[in-house]
Amino acid sequence: MRLFCFPYAGANASVFRTWTESLPRAIELLAVEIPGRGARLREPVQQDLESLVQKLTRLLLPYFDRPFALFGHSMGALISFELARFLRKKRRRSPVQIFISGHVAPQLPRTHRCIHDLPEAKFIQELRNLDGTPEAVLKNSELMQLLLPVLRADFRVCETYCYTPEMLLACPITVFGGFEDADVSQESLNAWQDQTCAEFKIRMFSGGHFFFQSNQASFLRGFADEIRLMLAKMGEK
User: Which of 74, 141, 214, 218 is the catalytic position?
Assistant: First the structure.
């Protein structure tokens, strides 16, 4: 089966480049490149989640011809969730399972102020505070001029997202989080169970918001365990 992986704001598909060797051989990992970066650098960035999900659906539709699961971290988690709902509504297809990482449940109110439209210096400082962009990159003015439009667009996608209640998803949801993530509490992760009528599970790891990178070995072992459980349940049906 296929596993589609969606990156966090500002990142590209390369963040998943080493994952395949840690996952069961039955899994074909497809790291999704968001328009405006990496191999799709020349494509226009999307400014809202709805248009982004619709474009990704058009791009990925040929790959939904076999059982699939979705994984997303932070912004990627929102993409995974809304993609599953869009596919159900428009294409009558559903993932076998959704793996959510590092994002509060979508129905919860935002608790953080918007930063996507801040002046450049303040925006960069906010990126520094989030600790997701290497300091060497933040200090490289030439590189930042290339990255800023993508980063602003991604944060705008997340910060302008408006949750709309719909029928619960029929697939299981497994959520991952970091114990030291100051912005995404375990309680806010637990609230994802209200988005599915199937099984729900949460697994916590040592680390902050980017625990899946800072504690990658431990996370990938746990993730591989959850993938094996998913495959085993598929085999039982």
Answer: 74
Question: How many structural domains comprise the chain?
Answer: 1
Which is nearest to 66 in space by CA: 94, 45, 91? 94
User: Could you read off the pLDDT of 58-104 as tens digits, one per residue?
Assistant: 999 999 999 999 999 999 999 999 999 999 988 778 999 999 999 99
> Which residue's structure tokens are 């400082």?
125
Return the sign of the alpha-carbon dihedral for residues 221, 223, 228, 233. Answer: positive
Per residue, what are the HEC states of 158-178? HHCCCCCCCCCECCCEEEEEE
Nearest of 170, 181, 163, 221 to residue 8 by alpha carbon: 181
Pair of tokens at residue 129: 């505070």
Within the chain, residue ranges assigned H as helices are 49-60, 75-86, 120-130, 135-138, 141-159, 186-190, 211-214, 216-236
Parent domain of 66: 2-108+164-236
Instruction: Retrieve residue 164's tokens.
Output: 């709309």
Structure tokens belonging to residue 173: 């949801």
Strands 173-178 and 97-101: parallel
**Between the CA atoms of 24, 25, 28 and 34, what dihedral angle is there, to the nearest 10 degrees?**
50
Q: Does the residue 93 lie in any domain?
A: yes
Give pLDDT tens digits for 108-143.
988 777 778 788 888 888 888 777 677 888 888 888
Q: Catalytic annotation on 74?
A: yes
Of the given ranges (35-39, 179-183, 219-223), which has the lowest mean pLDDT?
35-39
